[in-house]
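Here comes just one.
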Amino acid sequence: MTSIDDVAASLGVSTATVSRALRGLPGVAAETRARVTSTAESLGYVASSSASGLASGRTMAMGVLVPVIDRWFFSAVLEGVDRRLRAAGYDLVLFSLGGSGTNRDRVFHRSILRKRIDALLVLSMHLTDEERRAVQQLDYPTIVVGGAVRGVRHVGIDDAGAARDAVEHLIGLGHVRIAHMRGGGSFDIDFEVPRLREQAFRDTMADHGLMVREDWSAFGDFRFSTAREAALVLLADHRDRPSAVFCSSDEMAFGVLRAAVELGIDVPGELSVIGMDDHEFAGPMGLTTIRQDPAEQGAFAAGVLLDELLLDAPTSGPEPHPHSLVPRSSTGPAAASPGQDARASWRMGIQREARRRQEAAAPTMSASARPSIPSRTSEGESSGTPRSATRP
Protein backbone atom coordinates (compact mmCIF):
# COMPACT_ATOMS: atom_id res chain seq x y z
CA MET A 1 0.00 0.00 0.00
CA THR A 2 1.39 3.41 -0.97
CA SER A 3 2.34 5.64 1.95
CA ILE A 4 2.99 9.36 2.31
CA ASP A 5 6.70 8.54 2.47
CA ASP A 6 6.48 6.99 -1.01
CA VAL A 7 4.94 10.16 -2.42
CA ALA A 8 7.54 12.35 -0.74
CA ALA A 9 10.44 10.15 -1.95
CA SER A 10 9.09 10.16 -5.51
CA LEU A 11 9.07 13.97 -5.56
CA GLY A 12 12.16 14.60 -3.47
CA VAL A 13 10.29 16.67 -0.89
CA SER A 14 9.57 16.20 2.79
CA THR A 15 6.58 14.29 4.12
CA ALA A 16 5.48 17.51 5.83
CA THR A 17 5.27 19.26 2.45
CA VAL A 18 3.20 16.40 1.01
CA SER A 19 0.91 16.47 4.04
CA ARG A 20 0.35 20.22 3.88
CA ALA A 21 -0.25 20.13 0.12
CA LEU A 22 -2.84 17.37 0.30
CA ARG A 23 -4.59 18.86 3.31
CA GLY A 24 -5.04 22.21 1.57
CA LEU A 25 -2.95 24.14 4.06
CA PRO A 26 -1.03 27.33 3.21
CA GLY A 27 2.73 27.54 2.88
CA VAL A 28 3.03 25.36 -0.25
CA ALA A 29 3.73 26.79 -3.70
CA ALA A 30 0.98 26.26 -6.27
CA GLU A 31 3.33 24.35 -8.59
CA THR A 32 4.47 22.06 -5.76
CA ARG A 33 0.88 21.48 -4.67
CA ALA A 34 -0.07 20.48 -8.21
CA ARG A 35 2.89 18.07 -8.45
CA VAL A 36 2.05 16.50 -5.09
CA THR A 37 -1.61 16.08 -6.02
CA SER A 38 -0.77 14.54 -9.40
CA THR A 39 1.86 12.17 -7.98
CA ALA A 40 -0.37 11.08 -5.09
CA GLU A 41 -3.15 10.26 -7.56
CA SER A 42 -0.86 8.34 -9.92
CA LEU A 43 0.62 6.31 -7.04
CA GLY A 44 -2.80 5.62 -5.56
CA TYR A 45 -2.11 7.36 -2.27
CA VAL A 46 -5.12 8.70 -0.37
CA ALA A 47 -4.62 10.79 2.74
CA SER A 48 -6.49 9.87 5.91
CA SER A 49 -9.45 12.22 6.11
CA SER A 50 -9.86 11.70 9.85
CA ALA A 51 -6.24 12.59 10.58
CA SER A 52 -6.36 15.61 8.28
CA GLY A 53 -9.60 16.78 9.85
CA LEU A 54 -8.16 16.70 13.34
CA ALA A 55 -5.19 18.78 12.18
CA SER A 56 -7.13 21.37 10.17
CA GLY A 57 -10.38 21.61 12.09
CA ARG A 58 -12.32 20.65 8.94
CA THR A 59 -14.52 17.64 8.22
CA MET A 60 -12.51 16.78 5.07
CA ALA A 61 -15.81 16.00 3.31
CA MET A 62 -17.62 17.71 0.46
CA GLY A 63 -21.34 17.32 -0.22
CA VAL A 64 -22.76 16.79 -3.72
CA LEU A 65 -26.51 17.28 -4.30
CA VAL A 66 -28.08 15.53 -7.32
CA PRO A 67 -31.71 15.15 -8.47
CA VAL A 68 -31.10 11.52 -9.57
CA ILE A 69 -28.02 9.39 -10.14
CA ASP A 70 -29.10 7.30 -13.14
CA ARG A 71 -28.24 9.85 -15.85
CA TRP A 72 -24.99 9.76 -17.81
CA PHE A 73 -24.20 13.45 -17.26
CA PHE A 74 -24.54 13.19 -13.48
CA SER A 75 -22.41 10.05 -13.19
CA ALA A 76 -19.72 11.63 -15.38
CA VAL A 77 -19.62 14.78 -13.22
CA LEU A 78 -19.47 12.67 -10.06
CA GLU A 79 -16.51 10.72 -11.43
CA GLY A 80 -14.58 13.96 -11.95
CA VAL A 81 -15.52 15.32 -8.52
CA ASP A 82 -14.53 12.10 -6.79
CA ARG A 83 -11.19 11.91 -8.60
CA ARG A 84 -10.29 15.45 -7.54
CA LEU A 85 -11.43 14.97 -3.94
CA ARG A 86 -9.60 11.68 -3.45
CA ALA A 87 -6.36 13.27 -4.59
CA ALA A 88 -6.86 15.98 -1.93
CA GLY A 89 -7.76 13.49 0.81
CA TYR A 90 -11.41 14.56 0.87
CA ASP A 91 -14.47 12.33 1.14
CA LEU A 92 -17.55 12.73 -1.08
CA VAL A 93 -20.94 12.81 0.65
CA LEU A 94 -23.78 12.24 -1.85
CA PHE A 95 -27.24 13.74 -1.30
CA SER A 96 -29.74 12.39 -3.86
CA LEU A 97 -33.35 13.41 -4.25
CA GLY A 98 -33.91 9.99 -5.81
CA GLY A 99 -36.16 11.39 -8.53
CA SER A 100 -38.92 12.16 -6.04
CA GLY A 101 -40.15 15.58 -5.05
CA THR A 102 -41.49 14.20 -1.75
CA ASN A 103 -37.89 13.48 -0.72
CA ARG A 104 -36.77 17.04 -1.37
CA ASP A 105 -37.52 18.65 1.97
CA ARG A 106 -35.88 15.88 3.96
CA VAL A 107 -32.74 15.80 1.81
CA PHE A 108 -32.25 19.51 1.26
CA HIS A 109 -33.47 21.20 4.40
CA ARG A 110 -32.49 18.63 6.99
CA SER A 111 -29.79 16.25 5.75
CA ILE A 112 -27.49 18.85 4.18
CA LEU A 113 -27.75 21.33 7.01
CA ARG A 114 -27.27 18.61 9.63
CA LYS A 115 -24.30 16.88 7.97
CA ARG A 116 -20.88 18.27 8.72
CA ILE A 117 -19.36 19.10 5.34
CA ASP A 118 -16.86 21.73 4.27
CA ALA A 119 -18.46 22.66 0.93
CA LEU A 120 -21.47 21.87 -1.28
CA LEU A 121 -21.64 21.15 -5.02
CA VAL A 122 -25.09 21.15 -6.70
CA LEU A 123 -25.71 19.32 -9.99
CA SER A 124 -28.13 20.53 -12.68
CA MET A 125 -31.26 21.28 -10.74
CA HIS A 126 -33.57 24.19 -10.11
CA LEU A 127 -33.64 25.58 -6.60
CA THR A 128 -36.68 27.30 -5.18
CA ASP A 129 -36.22 30.83 -3.87
CA GLU A 130 -36.22 29.47 -0.33
CA GLU A 131 -33.60 26.82 -1.17
CA ARG A 132 -31.46 29.32 -3.04
CA ARG A 133 -31.47 31.68 -0.08
CA ALA A 134 -30.55 28.78 2.20
CA VAL A 135 -27.60 27.87 -0.03
CA GLN A 136 -26.40 31.47 -0.13
CA GLN A 137 -26.54 31.64 3.65
CA LEU A 138 -24.51 28.47 4.25
CA ASP A 139 -21.25 29.06 6.05
CA TYR A 140 -19.32 26.98 3.53
CA PRO A 141 -18.58 27.55 -0.18
CA THR A 142 -21.08 26.37 -2.78
CA ILE A 143 -21.00 25.94 -6.56
CA VAL A 144 -23.37 24.62 -9.25
CA VAL A 145 -22.39 22.35 -12.17
CA GLY A 146 -24.43 21.84 -15.34
CA GLY A 147 -27.23 24.37 -14.98
CA ALA A 148 -27.03 27.94 -13.70
CA VAL A 149 -28.81 28.95 -10.49
CA ARG A 150 -29.37 32.66 -9.95
CA GLY A 151 -27.00 34.06 -7.37
CA VAL A 152 -24.77 30.96 -7.17
CA ARG A 153 -21.51 30.40 -9.05
CA HIS A 154 -21.81 28.06 -12.00
CA VAL A 155 -19.48 25.73 -13.90
CA GLY A 156 -20.62 24.61 -17.35
CA ILE A 157 -20.61 25.32 -21.07
CA ASP A 158 -22.32 28.14 -22.92
CA ASP A 159 -25.51 26.14 -23.54
CA ALA A 160 -27.05 28.74 -25.83
CA GLY A 161 -23.88 28.98 -27.90
CA ALA A 162 -23.55 25.21 -28.10
CA ALA A 163 -27.14 24.78 -29.26
CA ARG A 164 -26.68 27.53 -31.85
CA ASP A 165 -23.59 25.74 -33.22
CA ALA A 166 -25.60 22.53 -33.58
CA VAL A 167 -28.44 24.21 -35.48
CA GLU A 168 -26.01 26.21 -37.62
CA HIS A 169 -24.38 22.93 -38.63
CA LEU A 170 -27.71 21.60 -39.91
CA ILE A 171 -28.55 24.84 -41.72
CA GLY A 172 -25.08 24.88 -43.24
CA LEU A 173 -25.86 21.47 -44.75
CA GLY A 174 -28.93 22.97 -46.44
CA HIS A 175 -31.59 21.85 -43.97
CA VAL A 176 -34.54 24.19 -43.45
CA ARG A 177 -37.12 21.65 -42.23
CA ILE A 178 -35.64 21.20 -38.75
CA ALA A 179 -37.39 19.70 -35.74
CA HIS A 180 -36.35 19.97 -32.10
CA MET A 181 -36.29 17.10 -29.57
CA ARG A 182 -36.30 18.94 -26.25
CA GLY A 183 -35.76 17.85 -22.65
CA GLY A 184 -36.47 19.00 -19.13
CA GLY A 185 -39.44 18.96 -16.81
CA SER A 186 -38.80 15.85 -14.73
CA PHE A 187 -37.80 16.33 -11.10
CA ASP A 188 -36.52 19.86 -11.87
CA ILE A 189 -33.57 18.37 -13.76
CA ASP A 190 -31.59 20.89 -15.81
CA PHE A 191 -34.20 23.57 -15.23
CA GLU A 192 -32.20 26.28 -17.01
CA VAL A 193 -30.41 24.12 -19.60
CA PRO A 194 -33.42 23.00 -21.68
CA ARG A 195 -34.82 26.53 -21.75
CA LEU A 196 -31.53 27.97 -22.98
CA ARG A 197 -31.12 25.30 -25.65
CA GLU A 198 -34.68 25.64 -26.91
CA GLN A 199 -34.47 29.42 -27.06
CA ALA A 200 -31.17 29.21 -28.94
CA PHE A 201 -32.80 26.82 -31.45
CA ARG A 202 -35.67 29.25 -32.04
CA ASP A 203 -33.39 32.28 -32.26
CA THR A 204 -31.06 30.60 -34.75
CA MET A 205 -33.95 29.53 -36.95
CA ALA A 206 -35.35 33.07 -36.84
CA ASP A 207 -31.96 34.56 -37.72
CA HIS A 208 -32.04 32.52 -40.94
CA GLY A 209 -35.65 33.37 -41.71
CA LEU A 210 -36.82 29.81 -40.97
CA MET A 211 -40.12 29.01 -39.31
CA VAL A 212 -40.39 26.85 -36.19
CA ARG A 213 -43.29 24.42 -36.41
CA GLU A 214 -44.79 23.70 -33.02
CA ASP A 215 -45.84 20.21 -34.09
CA TRP A 216 -42.14 19.54 -34.71
CA SER A 217 -41.18 20.47 -31.15
CA ALA A 218 -41.18 17.07 -29.44
CA PHE A 219 -40.59 16.28 -25.76
CA GLY A 220 -37.93 13.64 -25.10
CA ASP A 221 -37.25 14.25 -21.37
CA PHE A 222 -33.49 13.66 -21.86
CA ARG A 223 -34.28 9.91 -22.08
CA PHE A 224 -33.77 7.36 -24.84
CA SER A 225 -37.15 5.65 -24.46
CA THR A 226 -39.22 8.86 -24.25
CA ALA A 227 -37.42 10.38 -27.24
CA ARG A 228 -37.89 7.19 -29.29
CA GLU A 229 -41.65 7.23 -28.68
CA ALA A 230 -41.88 10.94 -29.52
CA ALA A 231 -39.79 10.46 -32.67
CA LEU A 232 -42.04 7.64 -33.90
CA VAL A 233 -44.88 10.18 -33.95
CA LEU A 234 -42.77 13.05 -35.26
CA LEU A 235 -41.45 11.04 -38.24
CA ALA A 236 -44.53 8.95 -38.99
CA ASP A 237 -45.88 10.92 -41.98
CA HIS A 238 -43.47 10.44 -44.89
CA ARG A 239 -45.26 13.20 -46.84
CA ASP A 240 -44.53 15.87 -44.25
CA ARG A 241 -41.59 15.12 -42.00
CA PRO A 242 -38.48 17.14 -41.06
CA SER A 243 -35.23 16.57 -42.89
CA ALA A 244 -33.23 17.07 -39.69
CA VAL A 245 -33.71 16.85 -35.92
CA PHE A 246 -31.76 18.88 -33.38
CA CYS A 247 -31.72 16.97 -30.08
CA SER A 248 -30.89 18.75 -26.82
CA SER A 249 -28.97 15.69 -25.59
CA ASP A 250 -27.27 12.65 -27.07
CA GLU A 251 -29.50 10.25 -25.15
CA MET A 252 -32.53 11.71 -26.91
CA ALA A 253 -30.66 11.61 -30.23
CA PHE A 254 -30.13 7.87 -29.73
CA GLY A 255 -33.90 7.52 -29.40
CA VAL A 256 -34.45 9.42 -32.65
CA LEU A 257 -31.91 7.22 -34.46
CA ARG A 258 -33.67 4.11 -33.19
CA ALA A 259 -37.07 5.41 -34.35
CA ALA A 260 -35.60 6.13 -37.79
CA VAL A 261 -34.43 2.52 -38.05
CA GLU A 262 -37.88 1.23 -37.09
CA LEU A 263 -39.55 3.49 -39.68
CA GLY A 264 -37.08 2.59 -42.41
CA ILE A 265 -35.71 6.14 -42.70
CA ASP A 266 -32.18 6.40 -44.05
CA VAL A 267 -29.74 8.40 -41.90
CA PRO A 268 -28.33 10.73 -43.13
CA GLY A 269 -29.79 10.32 -46.63
CA GLU A 270 -33.36 11.15 -45.60
CA LEU A 271 -32.85 12.43 -42.07
CA SER A 272 -29.97 14.14 -40.28
CA VAL A 273 -29.71 13.92 -36.49
CA ILE A 274 -27.47 15.94 -34.18
CA GLY A 275 -27.15 15.74 -30.41
CA MET A 276 -25.38 17.49 -27.57
CA ASP A 277 -22.88 16.24 -24.93
CA ASP A 278 -20.70 13.65 -26.77
CA HIS A 279 -21.96 10.74 -24.69
CA GLU A 280 -19.61 7.75 -24.52
CA PHE A 281 -21.85 5.91 -27.03
CA ALA A 282 -21.96 8.84 -29.50
CA GLY A 283 -18.79 7.76 -31.29
CA PRO A 284 -19.74 4.08 -31.77
CA MET A 285 -23.20 5.15 -33.00
CA GLY A 286 -21.77 7.69 -35.45
CA LEU A 287 -23.73 10.55 -33.88
CA THR A 288 -22.79 14.09 -34.83
CA THR A 289 -22.83 16.08 -31.61
CA ILE A 290 -21.57 19.03 -29.59
CA ARG A 291 -18.84 17.86 -27.25
CA GLN A 292 -18.52 18.86 -23.62
CA ASP A 293 -16.57 17.19 -20.80
CA PRO A 294 -18.74 16.78 -17.67
CA ALA A 295 -16.02 14.85 -15.79
CA GLU A 296 -13.58 17.71 -16.29
CA GLN A 297 -16.27 20.20 -15.21
CA GLY A 298 -16.83 18.20 -12.02
CA ALA A 299 -13.11 18.05 -11.26
CA PHE A 300 -12.76 21.76 -11.97
CA ALA A 301 -15.70 22.69 -9.72
CA ALA A 302 -14.34 20.56 -6.89
CA GLY A 303 -10.97 22.25 -7.36
CA VAL A 304 -12.59 25.69 -7.11
CA LEU A 305 -14.14 24.72 -3.77
CA LEU A 306 -10.90 23.20 -2.49
CA ASP A 307 -8.95 26.32 -3.47
CA GLU A 308 -11.52 28.48 -1.72
CA LEU A 309 -11.19 26.41 1.44
CA LEU A 310 -7.43 26.82 1.21
CA LEU A 311 -7.61 30.60 0.75
CA ASP A 312 -10.52 30.98 3.18
CA ALA A 313 -11.96 33.58 0.80
CA PRO A 314 -14.44 33.45 -2.12
CA THR A 315 -13.06 33.16 -5.65
CA SER A 316 -14.42 34.80 -8.80
CA GLY A 317 -17.04 33.10 -10.98
CA PRO A 318 -15.59 30.63 -13.52
CA GLU A 319 -15.67 31.30 -17.26
CA PRO A 320 -17.80 28.99 -19.47
CA HIS A 321 -16.07 25.72 -20.34
CA PRO A 322 -15.34 24.92 -23.98
CA HIS A 323 -17.57 23.00 -26.37
CA SER A 324 -16.92 21.86 -29.93
CA LEU A 325 -18.73 20.39 -32.91
CA VAL A 326 -17.91 16.73 -33.63
CA PRO A 327 -19.19 15.82 -37.13
CA ARG A 328 -19.94 12.15 -37.66
CA SER A 329 -22.09 10.06 -39.99
CA SER A 330 -25.55 11.00 -38.65
CA THR A 331 -25.67 14.32 -40.52
CA GLY A 332 -25.42 15.04 -44.23
CA PRO A 333 -26.65 17.43 -46.95
CA ALA A 334 -30.37 18.02 -47.19
CA ALA A 335 -32.06 16.16 -50.06
CA ALA A 336 -34.62 18.29 -51.93
CA SER A 337 -37.88 16.71 -52.99
CA PRO A 338 -38.18 15.99 -56.74
CA GLY A 339 -39.14 19.11 -58.69
CA GLN A 340 -38.77 21.55 -55.80
CA ASP A 341 -36.03 23.04 -53.69
CA ALA A 342 -35.90 22.67 -49.90
CA ARG A 343 -37.32 26.12 -49.15
CA ALA A 344 -40.28 25.55 -51.48
CA SER A 345 -40.94 22.29 -49.65
CA TRP A 346 -40.74 24.16 -46.36
CA ARG A 347 -43.28 26.77 -47.52
CA MET A 348 -45.68 24.01 -48.48
CA GLY A 349 -45.34 22.52 -44.99
CA ILE A 350 -46.09 25.87 -43.37
CA GLN A 351 -49.17 26.31 -45.57
CA ARG A 352 -50.43 22.86 -44.59
CA GLU A 353 -49.91 23.72 -40.93
CA ALA A 354 -51.83 26.99 -41.37
CA ARG A 355 -54.75 25.18 -43.00
CA ARG A 356 -54.76 22.56 -40.24
CA ARG A 357 -54.93 25.22 -37.53
CA GLN A 358 -57.63 27.15 -39.38
CA GLU A 359 -59.78 24.03 -39.72
CA ALA A 360 -59.26 23.16 -36.03
CA ALA A 361 -60.40 26.66 -34.98
CA ALA A 362 -63.37 26.89 -37.34
CA PRO A 363 -65.96 25.01 -35.19
CA THR A 364 -65.41 27.23 -32.17
CA MET A 365 -65.08 30.65 -33.77
CA SER A 366 -67.36 32.57 -36.07
CA ALA A 367 -65.94 33.86 -39.30
CA SER A 368 -66.20 37.45 -38.10
CA ALA A 369 -64.44 36.62 -34.82
CA ARG A 370 -61.42 34.93 -36.38
CA PRO A 371 -58.53 37.39 -36.72
CA SER A 372 -56.61 37.29 -39.96
CA ILE A 373 -53.50 38.89 -41.34
CA PRO A 374 -51.90 38.77 -44.77
CA SER A 375 -49.75 35.66 -45.12
CA ARG A 376 -47.49 34.84 -48.04
CA THR A 377 -48.65 31.90 -50.12
CA SER A 378 -46.03 32.46 -52.79
CA GLU A 379 -43.49 35.13 -53.62
CA GLY A 380 -45.33 38.46 -54.08
CA GLU A 381 -48.79 37.05 -53.18
CA SER A 382 -50.76 37.08 -49.93
CA SER A 383 -54.10 35.88 -48.61
CA GLY A 384 -56.07 36.04 -45.36
CA THR A 385 -54.50 33.55 -42.97
CA PRO A 386 -55.01 33.13 -39.22
CA ARG A 387 -52.41 34.76 -36.98
CA SER A 388 -51.63 31.31 -35.59
CA ALA A 389 -49.94 30.47 -38.89
CA THR A 390 -47.22 33.02 -38.25
CA ARG A 391 -44.15 32.43 -36.12
CA PRO A 392 -45.13 31.33 -32.61
The first helix runs from residue 4 to 11. Confidence is low (pLDDT under 50) at residues 364-392.
